[in-house]
Amino acid sequence: MSAAAMKDPVYFGAVAEFDSAGAIYAAAEKITDAGYRRVDSHSPFPIHGIEKALKQGPSHLGWFVCLGGLIGIGLAQLMMWWMNAVDYEFWVSGKPPYAWESTIPITFELMVLCAAFVAVFGMFGINRLPRLHHPIFAHSTIDRLTDDRFFLSVESADPLFDQAKTLELLREIGGENVELIAE
Question: At 141, phi and psi to the nearest 5?
Answer without folding.
Answer: -120, 20
